[in-house]
Amino acid sequence: MLLTTIFCLSAFLAVAGALLVTFSKNLIHACVYLLFCLVGVAGLYLTLNAEFLAATQLVVYVGGVVVLLLFAMMLTGGSSLNKVMSRFGLESTPLMGNWRTYLMGGVAAALLIAVLGNVLRNLSMGSSTVTEKSISSVEQIGVKLLTDHILAFEISSVLLLGALVGAAIISRPFRSSESEN
Amino acid sequence: MGIAPYIIVSSILFVCGIVVMIARKNIIGILLGIELILNAAALNFVSFTKFSNSNLDGQVFALFIILVAAAEAAVGLAIVIRFFQIRESIHIDSATQLQS
Amino acid sequence: MEYSLSTILPIVLLPFFAFVLNSFIVKKFTKTAVTISCLAIFVPFIYALRIFIDFVFNKYSADYYIHKTFTWFDLSSGSQIFKVQMGIYLDNMSAVMLLMVTGVAFLIHLFSTYYMHDDPRYGRFFVYLSLFTSAMLGLVLSDNLFSVFIFWELMGFCSYSLIGFYYEKEGAGNASIKAFMTTRVGDVFFLLGIVALWTTIGSVTYVDIYKAIAENSLNSPVFLFGLGIPIATFAGFCIFMGTIGKSAQFPLQVWLPDAMFGPTPCSALIHAATMVAAGVYLSLRMYPLMDAGGLLEAIAYIGGITAFGAATIALVQTDIKAVLAYSTISQLGYMVLGIGVGAYNASLMHLITHAVFKACLFLSAGSVIHSLHDHHTHTAVQEMPRMGGLRKKLPYTFLAMLFCTLAISGVPLFSAFVSKDRILGDALVMATRSSVYLIPAILGLCGAFLTPFYMFRMMFLTFFGEPRDADLFKHAHHETLSFNRNIPLLILAVFTLGFWYSGSLTGQGIGDKVFPDSKYEWFQVLVEKPVLSKFTSRTTTPLDVPERKEFIESSHYDPERGFASEEEEHEVHHIHQMGAIASIIIALSGIFLAYCMYISKKFSPAWWTTTFSRWTAALRNRYYFDHFYVDVLIQKGLLQLNNFLAWIDMGLYDRYAVDGWSKVLTLFYSMSRWFDNIVVDSILVDGTGISVRFFNIVLRTIQNGKIQFYFLVLLLVLAGYVLGFKPVI
User: What is the ipTM of this complex?
Assistant: First the structure.
């Protein structure tokens, strides 16, 4: 029952967070709701016997990505968000979307729901083969990462390095090129 | 307790991510939607590796997804900041040209 | 003698090269140019003499000929043959003509060095003379009508230039234009005849024409205005029209008297050796064609009318050159009459003898004119009423002119007696056979009476009696013997004697034969009517292959040849004898009449002119031919026609066709403007722009650079794919 309770709680947390992210009018708020959502997903990972993954989710996402997003929001203007004019300068569009964009989003959602429903129609609601093997997943993941997926692991480390350097170069200010001129 | 609830949750997350990506006009808001979609995918991997086979490959994939998401967030936000420096805007529709 | 390129062609080419060369150097080196011209006619004279001696003394048969051809241009393609051949046709007649032309032309050149010496355009005259002579020689040597026509026109141009030589003199320009335009009438017909023969036979060489006549292939009719005329008649008529124009026969004789506006030596050249002889020569060459076409009666009539009419006009002329001009027309009439009555040989003979004595007469007249210089008007005097008594001042000229006058009058022992009386005798023979020839024969005899009269009138008025213009006479220079003034005259005068042409007095092989051996009748042996049947197998050699002919002993003089029976022969001889006696009487009576009128003054010419004043006026006005041509034909006819054509041109064509066309064009213009504005501009041009703009809007909407839009489309496509095709998952 504990598992069910944790699942219910964390599923509620994830779904509610996602919906609030969707319909929130404030970006900061949306970011915080995303935080809830990610925590909910981490809880779902726990119920799936993926404790390491849940921990990583919390550390990386909640501790890294969301903070990064918040920093980015603050760096890109904050209060001036609502003043941005449209490209043609005719009306100021709230950056969080208006009814028209949400209509389009709704259409897309309806389509996706139809597609997903079409795909998942025969999904068995009951648990078919539940193999409760409470093994230490962390150790096994570590072994797998450094044996089967060693190439992907190394490549991902290069990717991270590239992302680090790239981000630093891209967000670098104009000064160097201007000084050259 | 089967796989279905997990799939449903991940579907909801996915649809929400799509809606955010379409409905928002803010680049950072769109990045939020992308995070949602990535999480939905990762959740799928983990739940299928629990209920279909238990060799933990799905969890490894989920790890890589988190990793890629972090890298994407870093580079994407760097681009957003750079874009804002040039255009004084983070409106998605002001980014319609490849060359300023 | 060997006949090749180098022995025949220089005859034509030397004068021509002299013309080309002199036309460049004549301004600077006048004396050199004159020398070149004279040499360039003397050397061909030597060549012609060689050929003539060869033909006469080697006694080639009368129908022997040398025919050398070369292809001028060849436009044949496939089965269509269009090939123009030029060539040289040399037979006895050509040889005689060559000798006559070169000899007379050389003497005229020589005389011109005296006559034209003080002229400012001394050298230019010789340039023209060279071209003129060259053209005539080329015409004589031509083997086809086409090259004859070319040289014919070349001579027309030269006569135009020479008649208008003193272009500053009033009337000279008009006279040259008149000569050119009048002969042009004949030339057009001539060209038409050439074309008719060309289209029928496919060739215009003499040999081919003779061959076609022999094969009777010229009898197919051509249709003119609905009348079917045999092609031989049509072509013969057209070619004879060329003769009429060039030899100044009856309807077109008006140009020749005006030709005396040119320098006197050129008159001699035109009237004697070249221009007018060319027409008769052509008719002689085409005699078989005219015979086949049945035109001989008409030719005889035209010859008779010309001979008599021109002689009557000559009676009243006062200009010494005009008298000679009309006598030329009259004598040409005799030649044409000879052609008409079938006196082929006699006609050619008269052509030769006439060329000699008429050249001499004109040169003598030139000598007379040159010696008389009016010091008041600074012009040479040509009017006979102002002359008289010049015998003492110009003895050599008088001698030469007397010989020629006796010759033209038909006095026995002189050349024209031989030739003219043969023509008249043949005319009388024809008149006894057919009454159609009666009128030409009578006209010829009347002309024979008038000829000595007007010629001796000229002689008496010029050389005898008292000087009528004492001042002029006093200033006339006394003549001294000089090589270029008197020698040519005397040489020509020597050749007016009859024995050069015939051993007998009459040249008819009857009566008083000076030489019983008939071989001295060389002229009759030399030329005879072309025997057509011999041309059916033609012999043609290329131009550059020398030809050597062996001695031919096939030609003997046979006076009985050509007569059917002894009785007929006797009759013909009888008529010829009668004609000869009659013409002696006529000539002497004409001379006597002139003597009575102008020396002994038994009859006064004034009585005649007052009694027959209307006739005299008609004669003075040359039978009103000029009046008729200018006032009636040109003023009434041609000008009306011109006005009518101008009205058609301006009133109809310009007004309706041209201006009406502008209306049509305006309509078309407005239509096409509408089309341009509506269809092209509005629909096509603007429509293109509009459609581009439309698709621009559509495509710009799609390709808007908005990521979200792309994403949405992507989703829609994906969803549509999944929902529509239900892929296996």
Answer: 0.90
